[in-house]
Structures are given as structure tokens and as C-alpha cells.
Specification:
Elements: H1 7-21, H2 33-42, H3 48-61, H4 65-70, H5 73-80, H6 87-102, H7 111-114, H8 122-133, H9 142-152, H10 161-174, H11 180-193, H12 212-215, E1 232-245, E2 248-250, E3 254-255, E4 266-267, E5 270-273, H13 279-290, E6 297-300, E7 306-309, E8 313-323, H14 334-338, H15 344-352
Parallel strand pairs: 1-8
Antiparallel strand pairs: 1-2, 1-5, 3-4, 6-8, 7-8
Helix pairs in contact: 1-11, 2-3, 2-8, 8-11, 9-11
């Protein structure tokens, strides 16, 4: 380390702050590795306020890891709907099956064994090992990066190879081994509600007298992150066919297959284009897309594209209502459609869908 480590003062103050300010969260009342794992996976790239209802819903539906392992993927994806990053849900299911099959339903207790499980990386393995089994493993998530980089004035990019190793070593150096369970939760909580990304209240911070970032006026500049992400624009045209079967209006969904966003979720027939398209262009694609020869009645549902922002791509989406006379195979009522696991973009569309169309 290039700077002196005041680990006792740092850790002690963090723990004192935590005892006075920690939030009451459902997974803090347990050391059950199943529930800790569930919460940690759900809170990856998700705010606590958003993730908590999902955690409670999963615990209610799947009280044990055996329940989760035995559930259908479709049911899991439906319960996950709206939480995003759906690979987390698929990995959750795969790991539940592994723990039940290979470990008799008991989570491994060491970092080295935990990190071998699908969807569990360095941070999650450290969190489970320390919180559930008191293993002396430091956690490093976005909150911890921010606290350490500001407090010690470290401008090494947190997403560089050098930075990842440096901050992991620093986190190990300053952690409180004797109180590792509370300390790891404390430093993450400190970053989440005290040392926040924008406009932190440094005047009320218990570390203000020894924070290098504050002393050198670097709070807004730290942590440093290399911007590697190039945002890709995609244009989605969802075709919502509407037809009648015995007087009942129906439509169809298709399952997304292959790698990529929303794998195994359901969606309306999709025409993706490189630029926005007009009704006339869409009309020319309908026969091959829907496999019908009708002369359709087309309505552009939203005048301007709905912009749905994902981490590496922005989706510009237009929904087209297409009324046809020929029933399609596997037609679904609106109620049946709502029971399928769909991307939140489509779930939001269904909430606004006018009764006149269905």
C-alpha cells in the first residue's frame, strides 16, 4: 500500500456508524446462505428499494432452495419480470439445482467453493462466506470502491486490471476480521446511504477528518472509471396481431431464443431495423413475419418510439397493432398473454393497451 492504513480507526468508525444508521432489511435478520445468496443476486445492479419486493416475493414462493430448484424456468422468469438482467434469474435457477444435486441442499462454506457456482463472482462469494460463515473475506462492490477510493484518495481506475487488484488488496488490509459479518455489511451500507455517488453530506460524515478525497477536494472526481461502453442503438418494431377465434380477440407471443437480451422471455413478433421504419415498409414485411396473406389494418400505437435504455444499448421501440382476418396458431387471450414472462417494455405496453384493441 502506498498510503498509511489507519485500519482500526477506519473500521471502528464504520462499525459505529452502521450500528446507528443501518436500514432494517429482511435479509439482515438471517444468516441462512440461501436467503443471503438470493438477496445478493437480486441486488446486483438493482437498488434496494426496487429489489426488496422481489426478494419477499421469491422467499414467499420458494421458501427453500429445493423449492427454487424444482420450479419451472417460466415461473421463475415471470416472478423476476421487471427486475432486469434476466441472466441472473437463469443462473439463480441453475445454481439452485447444483446446490440441491451436488451439495445435498447445503451451500458450500468457503469462498473457493462458492465462486465455482454459476452466477457467483468474487463479490457474491465473499459476501456469502463472510455474512453466513464469518469467513475473513473482504467484499468489494460499487459502494466499497467509492468509499475506499475517496477515503484514501486513490485515483486508479476501479475497472482496470490494476485497480481491481489494488482495491481488493486494500479492502483486505482495512477489514475488521473479528467483526467481519457486520463490517462487510457496514462498509457497503456506508457507501449506499452516506458516501453516495452524488452530493454526499460530507459535513455529517464520521470519516471527514481523515478523508483524503475531502481534504483534497476530490469527492466528485472519485472513484475513477474507464468508460469502455459504446452504446448501440437498435430499432424494435413489435407487431401485435389481433384476430378473432369464436368471437374472442387473440394475439400471439414468441419466445426469444439464442444468446442476447431477454433470452427465453416472450414477446410479440419482432421486426428489427437499422433505422425507424414507416407503415408502408412494415406492410411489406408482414406476410413473412406473421405467415398470413391478409390485407391487414395497421395502426401505429405509439407516435414516437419508446426509448428503453439498457447498459450497452438503447432500444427505440414502436408497437404496431395489426388487425387480421385469418386466425393464427397458438392464439392467446390478453389474460393469457399477461401470464407469460415478458420484458418490462412489453409489460408496460400491456398496461396501457386500450380495450378497443382486445
Amino acid at each position: 500500500m502506498n498510503q498509511p492504513i489507519d485500519k482500526m480507526t477506519f473500521a471502528y468508525k464504520i462499525l459505529i456508524w452502521y450500528s446507528q444508521n443501518k436500514r432494517t432489511l429482511p435479509w439482515r435478520r438471517t444468516r441462512d446462505p440461501y436467503r443471503i445468496w438470493l438477496s445478493e443476486i437480486m441486488l446486483q445492479q438493482t437498488r434496494v428499494e426496487q429489489g426488496t419486493p422481489y426478494y419477499l416475493k421469491f422467499v414467499s414462493n420458494f421458501p427453500t432452495i429445493e423449492n427454487l430448484a424444482n420450479a419451472s424456468e417460466e415461473r421463475i422468469m415471470k416472478l423476476w419480470q421487471g427486475l432486469g438482467y434476466y441472466s441472473r434469474a437463469r443462473n439463480l435457477h441453475a445454481t439452485a439445482k447444483t446446490v440441491v444435486t451436488d451439495f445435498d441442499g447445503e451451500f458450500p462454506k468457503t469462498y473457493k467453493e462458492l465462486i465455482k457456482l454459476k452466477g457467483i463472482g468474487d463479490y457474491t462469494a465473499s459476501a456469502i462466506a463472510s455474512i453466513c460463515f464469518n469467513a475473513p473475506e473482504p467484499v468489494v462492490d460499487g459502494n466499497v470502491y467509492r468509499v475506499l477510493s475517496r477515503y484514501y484518495g486513490v485515483d486508479t481506475p476501479i475497472n482496470s486490471t490494476k485497480g481491481i487488484k489494488y482495491f481488493k488488496d486494500l479492502a483486505r488490509e482495512v477489514m475488521d476480521i473479528e467483526n467481519i459479518r457486520d463490517y462487510n455489511q457496514a462498509i457497503m451500507e456506508f457507501g449506499a446511504i452516506q458516501c453516495v455517488p452524488k452530493n454526499p453530506n460530507c459535513d455529517s460524515c464520521p470519516l471527514k477528518d481523515s478523508c483524503v478525497g475531502l481534504q483534497k477536494n476530490l469527492i466528485t472526481a472519485l472513484p475513477v472509471k474507464i468508460n469502455k461502453t459504446k452504446v448501440r442503438k437498435r430499432y424494435f418494431n413489435y407487431v401485435v396481431p389481433v384476430f378473432q377465434v369464436e368471437g374472442v380477440k387473440k394475439s400471439v407471443l414468441r419466445k426469444r431464443i439464442g444468446k442476447g437480451i431477454w433470452q427465453n422471455l416472450f414477446e410479440f413478433p419482432l421486426l428489427e431495423s437499422t433505422v425507424p421504419i414507416a407503415e408502408l415498409q412494415l406492410k411489406g414485411e408482414l406476410e413473412s413475419l406473421l405467415q398470413v396473406e391478409d390485407e391487414p389494418d395497421i395502426v401505429q400505437y405509439n407516435e414516437k418510439p419508446i426509448i428503453h435504455k439498457l447498459s450497452h444499448q438503447h432500444l427505440y421501440t414502436t408497437f404496431w397493432i395489426v388487425k387480421i382476418n385469418t386466425p393464427m396458431e397458438n392464439g392467446l387471450t390478453i389474460k393469457e398473454i399477461e401470464n407469460h414472462a415478458v420484458p418490462v417494455l412489453i409489460a408496460d405496453f400491456l398496461k396501457t393497451l386500450k380495450n378497443s384493441y382486445f
